[in-house]
């Protein structure tokens, strides 16, 4: 997913933060192949240890899902730890396997992570609370995005900790006002380019403090003509919004970055 806008609120008693964010699906996606097996297993080349997809499958079993054992083979195409919610999207895809067989998938999704609930049914969405309140909105008008990953990833927890250290955050009333403005702007299916003045990322100063090199990607996107250039989520990936894929492809070439990714936005793969 692409986080178009992220407003940061205060910390909660559970250690999480209040948020108001607007996110949309991307055409960019991982590939998950499902096959029968002797026992449940999840494989993802290049990633060691347990991942969210494995936890999602275990969570379904704990809630009584009785489908025969399966093997999930994940081929990553979404950069890892890049602020694009790739792991969350994979976990949500696993949860969707259970369909109507397991109740309250939303609760399980939230247990897995704040970004998972919105990915159960990918769509342009206003997200509140710590990620548990998801208000899906009409699909936006066609547009495209250029992504410039900053290699090495960035831990979400570290970015939030830095945001706390910097004293970032807004009051509850301001978060609600921003939510209403975003809803009004997006409710009719407009392109995010039509309300670019509302798009911001309150976590960006914290992410840039930890990864100053991500600022170079933002500068490259602006120089290439991006109407909006921000870090997505907790970063460190920078994104630029463009009217269509042709403009996005030309801009990606203009950045001179071999790792630039061009994707349709507002749609799933």
How much is the radius of gyration in Å? 18 Å
Order of helices and strands: EEEEHEHHHEEEHHHHEEHE
Low-confidence stretches: none
Tell me the quaternary state. Answer: single chain
- The backbone outline, from C-alpha atoms, is globular
- Please tell me the overall pLDDT: 93
Strand arrangement across the biggest beta sheet: 1-2-6-7
Number of strands: 11
Biggest sheet record: 4 strands, antiparallel
**How far is the N terminus from the C terminus?**
11 Å
Q: Count the helices. How many? A: 9
Beta-strand proportion: 15-25%
Helix content: 25-40%
Question: How are the SSEs placed, and which strands pair?
Answer:
Layout lengths: L1 E10 L5 E8 L6 E6 L4 E4 L7 H11 L7 E6 L10 H11 L8 H8 L3 H4 L5 E5 L3 E4 L6 E6 L7 H11 L5 H15 L17 H7 L3 H10 L4 E4 L6 E5 L2 H11 L5 E5 L4
Parallel strand pairs: 4-5
Antiparallel strand pairs: 1-2, 2-6, 3-5, 6-7, 8-10, 8-11, 9-10
Helix pairs in contact: 1-2, 5-7, 8-9
Describe the structure.
With 269 residues, the chain is an alpha+beta fold. The protein is built from nine helices and eleven strands. It has a four-stranded antiparallel sheet with strand order 1-2-6-7, covered by helices on one side. A four-stranded antiparallel sheet has the order 9-10-8-11, covered by helices on one side. The longest helix has 15 residues. The chain is globular. The N and C termini lie close together (11 Å).
Summarize the structure.
This protein has 9 helices and 11 strands.
